[in-house]
Design brief:
174 residues
């Protein structure tokens, strides 16, 4: 059974997914209005996880970060960098690819949200309220400078080289 944190954050992810689908409903062009709403929403969603969930889980684990935290942070950095330049179909496709695997790390029965709910125990309502209280993130205009795509490539490379614990061993993400 999903708790209040999972319901809220999974619902927000579903809203963001719908906005991204709407943004590229016409393959010939990106719907800028839907994309800008998605962009602002994704940055706020990332802030909820980075400023509330991951620090709270670390605190409750006596200072030890969650094993999945490194991958989530690498994904968040890559996603945020992809939101900097003017959107193209290729950029949107890359965002969608990251979100497909990223959302599974968060929403599954052993995902970030379930773990955070378990760690919070009777304080889960407070944790959900703190996540919901994260304000909108200021969004800068798109920037298409000469090094933006190089920076994105570096963050995508770092993301794919992040090691995830799997069972007793480890593996690199493809």
């Amino acid at each position: 059974m999903k708790g209040p944190l999972t319901k809220f954050l999974a619902g927000d992810q579903a809203r963001l997914d719908a906005l991204l689908r709407r943004a590229v409903a016409n393959p010939a062009l990106v719907d800028r209005s839907a994309y800008e709403e998605f962009r602002a929403g994704l940055l706020r969603h990332i802030a909820m996880e980075e400023k509330v969930l991951l620090p709270d889980a670390r605190r409750r684990r006596g200072g030890d970060p969650l094993p999945v935290a490194r991958q989530l942070r690498a994904d968040h950095a890559a996603l945020a960098s992809l939101l900097v330049p003017t959107p193209t179909s290729a950029i949107v496709d890359t965002i969608r690819g990251i979100l497909d695997s990223h959302n599974q790390l968060e929403e599954g029965p052993d995902g970030l949200y379930a773990i955070c709910e378990q760690l919070a125990g009777s304080e889960v309502e407070d944790l959900a309220a703190r996540a919901q209280a994260v304000p909108e993130v200021p969004v800068a205009p798109h920037f298409d400078g000469p090094r933006v795509h190089e920076h994105i490539a570096n963050l995508l490379n770092a993301r794919t080289n992040t090691v995830l614990p799997i069972g007793r061993g480890t593996r690199h993400r493809p």
